[in-house]
Amino acid sequence: MPTIPDIIKFMKEALIYDRLDTGEVKCRLCGHTCLIKKDHRGICAVRENRDGTLYSLVYGKVISRNVDPIEKKPLFHFLPGSTSFSIATVGCNFRCKHCQNYEISQFPQKRAFEIPGRDMSPEQIVDAAARHGCLSISYTYTEPTIFFEFAFDCAQLAREQGIKNIFVSNGYTGPDASRLIAPFLDANNVDLKGSDAFYREICGARLQPVKDTIVLMKELGIWLEITTLIIPDLNDSEKDLTDIAEFIVSVDPAIPWHVSRFYPTYKLVDRASTPVATLRRACEIGYKAGLMHVYEGNVPGEGGENTYCPKCKQLLIQRVGYSIQENIMTDGTCPACHSRIRGIWKTDEKQQ
Hints:
The structure is a single chain. By secondary structure, the protein is α/β, with parallel strands linked by helices. The protein folds into two domains: 12-56, no CATH class; 61-287, Alpha-Beta Barrel (TIM Barrel). It is built from nine helices and 19 strands. The strands form five sheets. The protein has an eight-stranded mixed sheet. A three-stranded antiparallel sheet has the order 1-6-5, with no helix packed on it. Strands 2-3-4 form a three-stranded antiparallel sheet, with no helix packed on it. It is globular. Mean pLDDT is 94; it is low at 1-9.
């Protein structure tokens, strides 16, 4: 990796790393635990060792900000029908060949380590969320772990203002980072992509750290939903889908599983879109394994986005895409059989 010119003005010292006697630093922010030489960066390409101090180069460098429906995250059991102020910086600690946001996630690697973005403070982010009437802030589009320091500061301010915080994550957040953000993090949609071979070949990562993060986030009381983008011939086998479903059940069968349709993109344009029949099969596998809620993603209007009571099968929330057509729950309870539906349904609730 080449030495990086001293061109970045907007830096903040990293929170979770070790200084070594050699002048190297060991970043413990994510599952890669990069050993970073002086004047070099980690795998994410946005954290740099300068004279034995590790800096985040993306603090406050917002590359994308939007008001999104919460269903887009996707979160179906977390304040449904609300909006979330969504932000990202450039960079990622994965190299997914199917990344739909590769223009920003891989930007530093593609552009000689340039760090673009609009300078924004945590106060400005929280003010914008409040001004737009958003009930939450989502750290999304790229991997929030790589802009952890900024997300952490925003999350603390948001909590003070009664605004909830959401990660949309690849699940590679390290245990120390997970514990640090947990008091301020309300929900996390984690991608659980496939087998260990899939992670190594398609994402440049490993499976076990993702599983470990999911287990830890659950233990820390953060509301979890899991997403698997199903790619033909790569992670759509009976074993792949069964392994994922059974793992989620082992953590908590009430965790919603979103099985989403793949569309050709980035380095996988040679792949066909996922057949709807494959999503239906994944749903069957999920329910057979013992999951209470399985949703089909990226196929609006097919009915796979609706929420049903797992006990009496009453239709509770009818969705088309990111839009709710009807919601007959007023307090997170099925009006037909009075079963409690797990989730966060009101702004003053914690994980149920």
